[in-house]
Amino acid sequence: MTYYSFLSQLLTSEKCFKYEDELRSLDMHFNVKKSAWLRFGIGHNNFVSPVMLNGQPLPMVSEVEYLGVVISAGKRFKISIHLKRMKFYRAFNALWSKVGGKTLDIVILHLIRSFCLPILLYGLEAVPVSKSQCNSLKCCWSRVLFRIFHISSTENIHFISV
To answer: Taking a C-beta distance cutoff of 8 angstroms, is the pair 149, 157 a contact?
Structure first.
C-alpha cells in the first residue's frame, strides 16, 4: 500500500488516531508538512472539522500531484491537464530548437511521437478524461503539426491518429 493510498483511507479523526498509534508502534511517523487532503463529491465545498495528524491539522488542498497526474477536488473525480500541456510544449520547444528545419519532417515527427507525446498522454488511460480535455489535448498535437509542416489551420490537414 502506498503512502497516498494509505492517506486516502483517513476518513475520520478516529481512524487517523488508530493509524498514528499503529505507526508509532512500528517506529514510523507521518510527515505533517508533506501531507494534505482533498475532497470529492457533492459536498466537497462544505465545512468539515480539520483532520488532525500528530496533533496538527492537515491542510485541505484543491489539487494534488500523484504519480505525475494532477488530481483536482470537485463534484467528480477529475484531473488537470494544464501541467501536462506545459511539459509537452517545453519538451517540443527544446526538441524543435535543436532539430527544427534542419532535418526531414518525418524524422522530427518520429522524435516528437517518441519523446514528447508520452509526456502528454502519461496516465490518461487510468482516469476519466472529459470531452473538453480531449479537445485540448488534440489542440496540442495540432499545434505541433502546424509548426512542423508550416500550415496555419486544421482545414489543411486531416487529424493524424496518435
So the answer is: yes
